[in-house]
Design brief:
alpha/beta; 434 Repressor (Amino-terminal Domain); Rossmann fold; 12 helices; 41% helix; 17% strand
């Protein structure tokens, strides 16, 4: 005896609503009230409704081969206290943007940078986004954690890049800093270096919740580095001439005391400080960066930033399609693997 499949129309007839209402409710569409969505889902489960896999596959195929329909504007939301700093574009962020922008276009969205200017309240910025028709927001890395004040995140789908922004507590896509550091230290040791040191910004490490320093310390134990050199923690503050001289003195003292043969650094300033101190890279000391996009050395960690941008936009598109807004009950972190890049600043000693 053939069992009749329960259809959308069967559920609709039971509830005395249109089959379109049932379909939209099951897609969690925001135009259907929450009460009605719950009612439809409960009835569908009670009646044993499940989508026809063949029809779903056909719909997905038609959508894939058809022209990409414009689905809306996505904001790349910036909150700068010093607008002049916008002039300094880091390659890392440019690659995040490139990956996200290409993905947005492929998925039918348009990505646009929208600046939240100093003096503009959170509520006012929220109104600006709503007036522009924005439903999705990507939050790039920030030097200072933005204060969102009275911004209502429940009206938007959100994805953050990086751990440098602590709020909103949304889904997040970033490089796996901990594993990347272990990978990098392992590669440096494999290349024949024994006294491997770390130069790390204290503020940088705090913003990343200790993952970079934690990865290095774990690598020291994992690879049994002996001696295990203590990291040099730096703080460049205002980047004044006085601060620069203090940092140079601290680096000089650390180098003389611990004599590393290779350095892994988070600081863009390290190569210039070494040069001022009279060190030749790599003849006197080898150097690798924790982010080769923005640290002026050839060897180090490629954080795969374009892939991070692409995956963040794909994650946001999924949330938009499912009408998932606000801070989720169970926020997820998607960690992208970093890759090692060879370069003349850290040649292999084993060749």
């Amino acid at each position: 005896m053939e069992i009749k499949r329960v259809t959308l129309r069967d559920v609709a007839e039971k509830l005395k609503v249109s089959h379109t209402t049932v379909a939209m409710a099951l897609r969690n569409h925001h135009t259907i009230s929450l009460k009605r969505r719950v009612e439809v889902r409960q009835m569908a489960e009670k009646m044993g409704y499940c989508p026809d896999p063949f029809l779903s596959a056909l719909a997905a195929y038609r959508k894939r081969i058809g022209p990409s329909k414009f689905k809306g504007l996505v904001a790349w939301a910036r909150h700068w206290r010093q607008p002049s700093r916008l002039q300094r574009k880091l390659k890392y962020e440019a690659d995040l943007w490139r990956g996200a922008s290409l993905a947005a276009g492929n998925l039918g969205f348009r990505l646009e940078e929208i600046l939240w200017e100093e003096g503009c309240s959170g509520k006012r910025f929220e109104q600006i986004l709503l007036a522009r028709g924005v439903r999705g927001v990507l939050i790039p890395p920030h030097d200072l954690d933005p204060n969102w004040t009275d911004f209502d995140w429940s009206k938007f789908s959100i994805v953050r890049f990086s751990l440098s922004v602590s709020r909103p507590d949304s889904n997040l896509v970033t490089v796996d800093h901990f594993r990347a550091m272990i990978m990098a230290v392992g590669k440096i040791k494999e290349y024949g270096y024994q006294r491997i040191g770390l130069v790390i910004g204290e503020k940088y490490n705090r913003r990343l919740e200790g993952t970079t320093l934690g990865g290095f310390l774990s690598a020291q134990e994992l690879f049994k580095l002996r001696p295990a050199l203590p990291p040099l923690k730096t703080d460049y503050g205002t980047r004044s001439a006085e601060n620069w001289q203090q940092q140079k003195a601290a680096l000089h003292k650390w180098l003389k005391r611990h004599t590393p043969d290779a350095i892994l650094t988070t600081d863009t300033e390290t190569p210039d400080l070494l040069q001022e101190l009279g060190y030749d890279v790599p003849r006197d000391i080898a150097v690798a960066g924790t982010n080769i996009d923005d640290i002026r050395v050839e060897a180090g960690i490629d954080q795969h930033s374009q892939a991070i941008g692409r995956i963040a936009m794909e994650t946001l598109a999924k949330q938009l399609n499912l009408n998932e807004c606000g801070e989720p009950a169970d926020p997820a972190r998607i960690l992208i693997e970093g890759r090692w890049q060879d370069g003349r600043s850290l040649p292999s000693k084993r060749l």
